[in-house]
Amino acid sequence: xxxxxxxxxxxxxxxxxxxxxxxxxxxxxxxxxxxxxxxxxxxxxxxxxxxxxxxxxxxxxxxxxxxxxxxxxxxxxxxxxxxxxxxxxxxxxxxxxxxxxxxxxxxxxxxxxxxxxxxxxxxxxxxxxxxxxxxxxxxxxxxxxxxxxxxxxxxxxxxxxxxxxxxxxxxxxxxxxxxxxxxxxxxxxxxxxxxxxxxxxxxx
Length: 204
Prior knowledge:
CATH architecture of the largest domain: Orthogonal Bundle
Signal peptide: 1-25
Membrane topology: Single-pass type I membrane protein
Helix content: 55-70%
Shape: elongated
Family: Belongs to the RAMP family.
Largest sheet: 2 strands, antiparallel
Structural class: mainly alpha
GO cellular component, one term: cell surface
Oligomer: single chain
CATH superfamily of the largest domain: Receptor activity modifying family
Transmembrane segments: 173-195
Protein backbone atom coordinates (compact mmCIF):
# COMPACT_ATOMS: atom_id res chain seq x y z
CA UNK A 1 0.00 0.00 0.00
CA UNK A 2 1.48 3.31 -1.07
CA UNK A 3 1.60 6.46 1.02
CA UNK A 4 -0.82 8.11 -1.41
CA UNK A 5 -3.49 5.47 -0.88
CA UNK A 6 -3.00 5.66 2.91
CA UNK A 7 -3.47 9.44 2.82
CA UNK A 8 -6.58 9.08 0.65
CA UNK A 9 -8.02 6.49 3.06
CA UNK A 10 -7.32 8.77 6.04
CA UNK A 11 -8.95 11.65 4.19
CA UNK A 12 -11.98 9.44 3.51
CA UNK A 13 -12.21 8.59 7.23
CA UNK A 14 -12.03 12.29 8.07
CA UNK A 15 -14.83 13.06 5.61
CA UNK A 16 -16.96 10.24 7.09
CA UNK A 17 -16.50 11.55 10.64
CA UNK A 18 -17.18 15.09 9.49
CA UNK A 19 -20.42 14.07 7.79
CA UNK A 20 -21.50 11.93 10.75
CA UNK A 21 -20.95 14.86 13.12
CA UNK A 22 -22.98 17.23 10.91
CA UNK A 23 -25.92 14.95 10.23
CA UNK A 24 -28.61 14.22 12.79
CA UNK A 25 -30.37 11.54 10.76
CA UNK A 26 -29.10 8.21 9.55
CA UNK A 27 -29.26 9.22 5.88
CA UNK A 28 -28.04 12.60 4.71
CA UNK A 29 -26.52 14.14 1.61
CA UNK A 30 -22.97 15.49 1.65
CA UNK A 31 -23.96 18.37 -0.58
CA UNK A 32 -27.45 19.66 0.23
CA UNK A 33 -27.70 21.03 -3.33
CA UNK A 34 -27.76 17.51 -4.74
CA UNK A 35 -31.25 16.22 -5.35
CA UNK A 36 -32.40 12.67 -5.85
CA UNK A 37 -34.79 12.00 -8.72
CA UNK A 38 -38.12 10.91 -7.21
CA UNK A 39 -38.54 7.86 -9.43
CA UNK A 40 -35.20 6.36 -8.38
CA UNK A 41 -34.20 4.76 -5.09
CA UNK A 42 -30.77 5.89 -3.94
CA UNK A 43 -28.62 4.28 -1.26
CA UNK A 44 -25.73 5.75 0.69
CA UNK A 45 -22.32 4.27 1.35
CA UNK A 46 -20.13 4.70 4.44
CA UNK A 47 -18.84 8.07 3.22
CA UNK A 48 -22.33 9.53 2.95
CA UNK A 49 -22.07 9.98 -0.82
CA UNK A 50 -25.07 8.79 -2.79
CA UNK A 51 -24.58 5.54 -4.66
CA UNK A 52 -26.16 3.99 -7.70
CA UNK A 53 -28.17 0.99 -6.39
CA UNK A 54 -27.47 -1.09 -9.49
CA UNK A 55 -23.70 -0.77 -9.36
CA UNK A 56 -22.94 0.54 -5.84
CA UNK A 57 -20.71 3.28 -7.30
CA UNK A 58 -20.69 6.84 -5.90
CA UNK A 59 -22.80 9.29 -7.85
CA UNK A 60 -20.83 12.51 -8.34
CA UNK A 61 -21.75 15.72 -10.09
CA UNK A 62 -18.81 15.11 -12.47
CA UNK A 63 -17.12 12.20 -14.19
CA UNK A 64 -14.32 10.62 -12.16
CA UNK A 65 -11.21 9.42 -14.00
CA UNK A 66 -11.40 5.71 -13.16
CA UNK A 67 -13.05 3.34 -10.72
CA UNK A 68 -10.06 2.68 -8.46
CA UNK A 69 -10.70 3.28 -4.76
CA UNK A 70 -8.03 5.97 -4.45
CA UNK A 71 -9.36 7.84 -7.50
CA UNK A 72 -12.94 7.76 -6.20
CA UNK A 73 -11.72 9.05 -2.83
CA UNK A 74 -9.96 11.95 -4.55
CA UNK A 75 -13.08 12.79 -6.58
CA UNK A 76 -15.25 12.68 -3.42
CA UNK A 77 -12.85 15.05 -1.62
CA UNK A 78 -12.92 17.51 -4.52
CA UNK A 79 -16.71 17.27 -4.70
CA UNK A 80 -17.12 17.85 -0.96
CA UNK A 81 -14.69 20.71 -0.47
CA UNK A 82 -14.45 22.39 -3.89
CA UNK A 83 -17.73 21.46 -5.59
CA UNK A 84 -16.01 19.65 -8.43
CA UNK A 85 -12.73 18.92 -10.20
CA UNK A 86 -11.34 22.46 -9.97
CA UNK A 87 -7.74 23.58 -10.31
CA UNK A 88 -7.93 24.73 -6.67
CA UNK A 89 -8.64 21.14 -5.64
CA UNK A 90 -5.85 19.86 -7.89
CA UNK A 91 -3.46 22.41 -6.39
CA UNK A 92 -4.41 21.28 -2.89
CA UNK A 93 -3.87 17.63 -3.85
CA UNK A 94 -0.45 18.45 -5.30
CA UNK A 95 0.49 20.36 -2.16
CA UNK A 96 -0.75 17.80 0.38
CA UNK A 97 -0.11 14.49 -1.37
CA UNK A 98 2.62 14.92 -3.98
CA UNK A 99 4.86 17.76 -2.84
CA UNK A 100 4.84 16.83 0.85
CA UNK A 101 6.31 13.42 0.09
CA UNK A 102 8.84 14.87 -2.38
CA UNK A 103 9.98 17.62 -0.01
CA UNK A 104 10.40 15.26 2.94
CA UNK A 105 12.49 12.92 0.76
CA UNK A 106 14.61 15.85 -0.46
CA UNK A 107 15.08 17.03 3.14
CA UNK A 108 16.52 13.63 4.01
CA UNK A 109 19.31 14.20 1.46
CA UNK A 110 22.23 16.57 1.84
CA UNK A 111 21.85 19.68 -0.29
CA UNK A 112 25.06 18.69 -2.09
CA UNK A 113 23.34 15.47 -3.22
CA UNK A 114 20.45 17.32 -4.85
CA UNK A 115 22.52 17.96 -7.96
CA UNK A 116 23.41 14.28 -8.46
CA UNK A 117 20.76 12.95 -10.83
CA UNK A 118 21.04 9.34 -9.64
CA UNK A 119 20.05 10.49 -6.12
CA UNK A 120 16.94 12.42 -7.13
CA UNK A 121 15.79 10.59 -10.28
CA UNK A 122 13.37 8.29 -8.39
CA UNK A 123 11.94 11.14 -6.29
CA UNK A 124 11.49 13.29 -9.39
CA UNK A 125 9.74 10.47 -11.26
CA UNK A 126 7.45 9.74 -8.31
CA UNK A 127 6.45 13.41 -8.14
CA UNK A 128 5.73 13.44 -11.85
CA UNK A 129 3.63 10.25 -11.59
CA UNK A 130 1.75 11.62 -8.60
CA UNK A 131 0.77 14.82 -10.42
CA UNK A 132 -0.26 12.76 -13.44
CA UNK A 133 -2.39 10.41 -11.31
CA UNK A 134 -4.20 13.29 -9.58
CA UNK A 135 -4.86 15.03 -12.90
CA UNK A 136 -6.15 11.82 -14.47
CA UNK A 137 -8.54 11.18 -11.57
CA UNK A 138 -10.07 14.63 -12.00
CA UNK A 139 -9.89 14.34 -15.81
CA UNK A 140 -7.78 17.48 -16.07
CA UNK A 141 -5.32 17.27 -18.99
CA UNK A 142 -1.71 16.54 -18.02
CA UNK A 143 0.64 18.36 -18.31
CA UNK A 144 -1.17 21.57 -17.47
CA UNK A 145 -0.12 25.05 -16.28
CA UNK A 146 -0.40 23.97 -12.62
CA UNK A 147 1.96 21.03 -13.20
CA UNK A 148 4.40 23.27 -15.05
CA UNK A 149 4.33 25.83 -12.23
CA UNK A 150 4.87 23.06 -9.66
CA UNK A 151 8.01 21.87 -11.43
CA UNK A 152 9.27 25.42 -11.98
CA UNK A 153 8.90 25.97 -8.22
CA UNK A 154 10.81 22.82 -7.25
CA UNK A 155 13.57 23.59 -9.77
CA UNK A 156 13.99 27.09 -8.39
CA UNK A 157 13.99 25.74 -4.82
CA UNK A 158 16.19 22.63 -5.13
CA UNK A 159 18.10 22.70 -8.41
CA UNK A 160 18.88 26.36 -9.15
CA UNK A 161 22.50 26.07 -7.93
CA UNK A 162 23.25 22.86 -9.82
CA UNK A 163 25.95 23.26 -12.47
CA UNK A 164 24.88 22.73 -16.05
CA UNK A 165 28.30 22.23 -17.64
CA UNK A 166 27.01 19.72 -20.16
CA UNK A 167 24.75 22.43 -21.59
CA UNK A 168 27.32 25.24 -21.63
CA UNK A 169 28.80 26.65 -24.85
CA UNK A 170 32.12 25.27 -26.05
CA UNK A 171 35.22 27.51 -25.74
CA UNK A 172 35.49 30.36 -28.25
CA UNK A 173 38.59 28.77 -29.88
CA UNK A 174 36.57 25.68 -30.81
CA UNK A 175 33.71 27.79 -32.20
CA UNK A 176 36.18 29.86 -34.26
CA UNK A 177 37.79 26.72 -35.71
CA UNK A 178 34.42 25.21 -36.61
CA UNK A 179 33.32 28.40 -38.39
CA UNK A 180 36.60 29.21 -40.20
CA UNK A 181 37.39 25.70 -41.50
CA UNK A 182 34.45 25.46 -43.96
CA UNK A 183 35.06 29.04 -45.12
CA UNK A 184 38.68 28.22 -45.94
CA UNK A 185 37.78 24.97 -47.69
CA UNK A 186 35.44 26.65 -50.21
CA UNK A 187 38.18 28.51 -52.21
CA UNK A 188 40.41 25.40 -52.15
CA UNK A 189 37.60 23.24 -53.57
CA UNK A 190 36.80 25.84 -56.25
CA UNK A 191 40.50 25.99 -57.24
CA UNK A 192 40.68 22.20 -57.54
CA UNK A 193 37.59 22.14 -59.76
CA UNK A 194 39.02 24.88 -62.03
CA UNK A 195 42.40 23.09 -62.31
CA UNK A 196 40.73 19.78 -63.12
CA UNK A 197 38.57 21.44 -65.77
CA UNK A 198 41.62 23.12 -67.42
CA UNK A 199 43.60 19.87 -67.40
CA UNK A 200 40.64 18.07 -68.94
CA UNK A 201 40.31 20.68 -71.75
CA UNK A 202 44.04 20.62 -72.51
CA UNK A 203 44.25 16.85 -72.84
CA UNK A 204 41.42 16.66 -75.37
